[in-house]
């Protein structure tokens, strides 16, 4: 696909400006090129040859969260994220591809064992205090993004999800369904508690769970513009689905994975029966639980609010299943948060690459979170979990950020320790209020 393919989409934009107020980036910067209209008109100008498509387009393209808040507000449905995606692809092919992106998108994300090895070594290094040593010796100043990433990550998990799954009973007696579990890279490395709760929940609901030996769904490569790598990741997924044998569904607890597995073929122009099978079998966890499960039998006495991951609420229109499920849990108090579908500013690695904008967006979310008084913030995407947990630390909020599966598993009788809010450590001037 070339930049000129963005022209027909961008023609839908009538420049009304309704996409300005809901755009989190525009609200942070106040700059027209941050909102849907601005980005679309600038891409259109380059596609029509009225402006040179130079490297200077990077901030216009890469500061977009691809959250689709603008699309939701747009009557003619000009799809900013799709247009930006096409332009990013062109930009990547001209200037973006380098040995580092090749290693990341083609080597590590294309091979789970290599990615796990890299993550384990990095986490081990943090545990051994190498990060602290780098900070003390001033080495982190040479690579400031590494310092931001470490602060964002917090304490890394002790064990990857795939290692934890090995000791679980995945085939309960009398199982009536056979479901694949698509292991998201993010759940595996950043939110294994949520992943384990998902698998135990499905098992408690009478499913034989087959963890798939999948690599990445392809979303990171797609959003950076490396569509060849993204296409390869999707083709790898089709093979994994096929080799798993008959499945009732493939469940994933990562909103980004479910969205991308359903939409990737259309976005990058792949068409085959196997790709269709991936699209048809893939289902989000809350959507699936709502479909197959009776009301939850066990009370869970917590005060919860819910953050909608953009890839669930806007890309897949899945806002009611998580709320219906949480509301059906006895003894659970649910408080709706204002602007619950307002992006958290996580967007993969956005919080590391666009620190100022991301923290501004996060501050707004933390303000609404604090207003609810909830002690648990549930969501359904590992990037959101990491970003929101970083937000609660940064803003000193005594709130536990959890995957929704961690609440639902308890409601369906899975024996897990109580969901306790973390103790807040005073961080002086580092804490920033919304
Ligand atoms: S993208 Fe949609 S909402 Fe924004 S200016 Fe264009 S038509 Fe209006
Ligand atoms: S996708 Fe989100 S960040 Fe990008 S222009 Fe639209 S509202 Fe703004």
Keywords:
434 residues; alpha/beta; Rossmann fold; 4-stranded parallel beta sheet; 25 helices; 53% helix; globular; disordered C terminus; binds iron/sulfur cluster
Structural write-up:
This protein is an alpha/beta fold and 434 residues long. Among the domains are: 94 residues, Fumarate Reductase Iron-sulfur Protein, Chain B, domain 2, CATH 1.10.1060.10; 136 residues, Rossmann fold. The chain is built from 25 helices and eight strands. Strands 2-1-3-4 form a four-stranded parallel beta sheet. Helix 16 packs across helix 18 and helix 17 runs antiparallel to helix 18. The two termini are 41 Å apart. The C terminus is likely disordered. Bound molecules: iron/sulfur cluster (SF4) (2 copies).
Question: Which helices and strands appear, and what pairs or packs with what?
Answer:
Elements: H1 6-10, H2 24-29, H3 36-47, H4 58-62, H5 69-72, H6 80-96, H7 99-108, H8 112-127, H9 130-136, H10 139-142, H11 144-153, H12 161-165, E1 177-181, H13 185-189, H14 192-204, E2 207-211, H15 219-224, H16 227-243, E3 249-252, H17 255-268, H18 273-281, E4 282-284, H19 285-292, E5 303-306, H20 310-313, H21 320-327, E6 333-334, H22 350-353, H23 355-372, E7 376-379, H24 382-394, E8 400-403, H25 404-411
Parallel strand pairs: 1-2, 1-3, 3-4, 5-6, 5-7, 7-8
Helix pairs in contact: 3-6, 14-25, 16-17, 16-18, 17-18, 19-21, 23-24
């Amino acid at each position: 696909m070339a930049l000129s393919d963005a022209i027909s989409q961008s023609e839908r934009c009538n420049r009304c400006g309704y996409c300005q107020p809901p755009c989190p980036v525009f609200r942070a910067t106040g700059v027209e090129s941050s909102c849907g209209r601005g980005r679309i008109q600038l891409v259109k100008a380059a596609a029509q040859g009225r402006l040179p498509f130079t490297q200077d387009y990077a901030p216009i393209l890469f500061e977009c969260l691809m959250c689709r808040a603008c699309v939701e507000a747009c009557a003619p449905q000009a799809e900013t994220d799709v247009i930006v995606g096409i332009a990013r692809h062109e930009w990547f092919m001209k200037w973006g591809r380098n040995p580092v992106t090749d290693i990341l998108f083609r080597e590590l994300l294309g091979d789970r064992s290599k990615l796990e090895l890299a993550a384990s070594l990095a986490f081990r290094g943090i545990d051994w205090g190498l990060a602290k040593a780098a900070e003390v010796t001033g080495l982190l100043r040479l690579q400031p993004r590494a310092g931001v990433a470490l602060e964002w990550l917090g304490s890394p998990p002790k064990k990857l999800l795939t290692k934890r799954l090995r000791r679980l009973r995945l085939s309960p007696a009398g199982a009536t369904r056979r479901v694949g579990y698509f292991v998201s890279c993010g759940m595996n490395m950043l939110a294994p508690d949520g992943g384990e709760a998902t698998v135990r929940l499905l098992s408690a609901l009478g499913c034989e769970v087959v963890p798939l030996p999948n690599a990445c769904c392809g979303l990171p490569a797609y959003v950076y513009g490396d569509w060849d790598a993204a296409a390869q990741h999707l083709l790898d997924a089709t093979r994994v689905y096929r080799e798993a044998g008959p499945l009732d569904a493939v469940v994933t607890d990562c909103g980004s994975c479910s969205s991308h597995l359903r939409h990737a073929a259309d976005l990058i122009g792949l068409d085959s029966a196997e790709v269709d099978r991936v699209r048809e079998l893939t289902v989000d966890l809350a959507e699936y639980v709502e479909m197959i499960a009776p009301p939850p039998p066990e009370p869970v006495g917590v005060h919860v609010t819910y953050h909608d991951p953009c890839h669930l609420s806007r890309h897949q229109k899945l806002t009611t299943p998580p709320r219906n499920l949480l509301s059906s849990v006895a003894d659970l108090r649910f408080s709706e948060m204002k602007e619950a579908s307002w992006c958290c500013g996580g967007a993969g690695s956005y919080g590391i690459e666009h620190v100022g904008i991301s923290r501004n967006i996060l501050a707004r979310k933390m303000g609404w979170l604090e207003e609810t008084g909830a002690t648990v913030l549930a969501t359904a995407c590992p990037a959101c979990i990491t970003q929101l947990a970083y937000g609660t630390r940064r803003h000193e909020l005594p709130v536990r950020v959890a995957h929704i599966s961690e609440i639902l598993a308890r409601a369906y009788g899975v024996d897990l320790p109580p969901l306790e809010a973390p103790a807040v450590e005073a961080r002086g001037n580092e804490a920033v209020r919304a």
